Fold:
Amino acid sequence: MAWNQPGNGNNNDRDPWKNQGGREQGPPDLDEAVKNLLAKLGFGGNKGGAGRSSGSSSGGLPTKGLGIIAVLALVVWFIAGFYTVKEAERGVVLRFGQYSDLVESGLHWRPVFIDSVETVDVSNVRQFQSDGFMLTQDENVVQVELDVQYRVVNPRDYLYAVEDADNSLQQATDSALRFVVGHSTMDEVLTVGRENVRAQTLELLETIIAPYQLGIQVVDVNLLPARPPEAVKDAFDDAIAAQEDEQRFIREAEAYAREIEPLARGQVRRLLQEAQAYREQTVLRAQGEVARFNELLPQYKAAPEVTRQRLYLETLERIYAENAKVFVDVEGSNNMMYLPLDKILEQQRNRPTQNRSNDSEAMMNSRSQSNSSSNQSSSQQSSSGRVSDRSGGRG
Structure:
């Protein structure tokens, strides 16, 4: 039978709420429950006479317990204040939400609930890519990709100067890249002007982010290979191949020039030296002729006729010595024989070996016939023949 059923007799002792006189059930007294809990923990006593007789001792127990709790809480608070900043990081200390200090790597302590620390990586280089279809100056569309490398140099500005420094840098990069591409032609973006586009983008990006104090330093930007639209990709591939051929031909021409130029310079020096030698030789020869004529002048004045004849004969002797043609004049005859020895010798050199014997025989026959005819003519005129020049200078 339940303790609260009628006719249960003295079951009131089993009532957990200690109801008296059949009163209705109600919630327990909160103050009483707290006092009972403190009594169980040893921080207080019952309301009996013993508790009244030792009032002074029971009053010291709560004070001692609270002191122990306060000491323990202080120890826990002090230990919780230690923190470590990694080697590649820097710590930004906030005191009640306001910037207080910047700490280096290592072990540090902060008052918990008063200071808070945010760490920022300042050593490693970060990167991101900015890409998209962009309009060039000549109204062509190209797809450009730019790889940006940066690192944090000022943790305070990086965290609190702007709301999101990384996102701000990406937007500034996209703006700078579109501005530079918009002021460049498509050929410059795709081929020869790629380095110029990269340098201008880096310079403009640094100019844009400087007033915002992002706490970021741009290390480098790399312009990845740009691509034209698919509709004109083949034509641009041909244009790029033609430009590569142009550069190859230029390098080959430069190599050829480097090879030919020394030879040409050597030939120029040789020609200059030959011209100098020819000039000196001509001058010396002229001076020698002048000296020779100066020496002949007294002899010419002494015997003009003899000197004139002597000079004439010496001149003919020199001319005939250098000439391979022979003229034979028979005295008392109007016929003159001409022997082209130079032509005959040239024909003998050019003809094959088997025909040279026939040519020799023919030459001997012609010479014998000419000799016999000359003898006959000389016998008919009863005079001896002699060989002289056509002018009859010497007998």
